[in-house]
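User: Here's a chain of 212 residues. Predict its fold as tokens.
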Amino acid sequence: MGLEKYIDHTNLKPTASLQDIVALCKEAIINDFYAVCVNGCHVATAHETLKGTPVKVAAVIGFPLGAMSTKAKVCEAMDCIENGADEIDMVINVGWIKSERFDAVRDEIKAIKKAIGPKILKVIIETCYLTETEKERACLLAVDAKADFVKTSTGFGNGGATLADVQLMKRVVADQLKIKASGGIKTKEEALKYIALGVSRIGTSSGPELIK
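Assistant: Prediction complete.
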């Protein structure tokens, strides 16, 4: 499988215009990327632009802090699916992890997965804010809640993906979940290192540059 099929071509900037999202989608079509990743307000535009192509639409929810109520996240996820999203990238409640409210974290992931049914759910654990033990626990909670992926980062925290974090995630989830590395991956060489570690998806705003 070529590198392009690992890429979620991403624009989550607060300043992203409708024209920017259409351009993102057209780049994804031209480069045969797996998916685009956009904020919820842009899902319908992305879905319409990508109609008739194999490119998927991934939408972020609870983004970028993860600190909304579970009810709000569930509603947001359902809205994105109704507007044409194929995948949901949710931000974990980091404060709940820090407070050891592990049942609440697990129940939230479960509730979102139940709401979106067979659609893909990626759980962003925002590794830059977690200790090694907390990262392990977050991954295990995602496994327990029957998510499809764990994902390193939003790209809006104080750090992005690292090879060490992906190695930890792979050790914890093994083959039970897939892994998405996201945040700060800007070169082909970096992307290939992550893929060699077992990553199934790369989230990046630099997709066209990565495959050159």
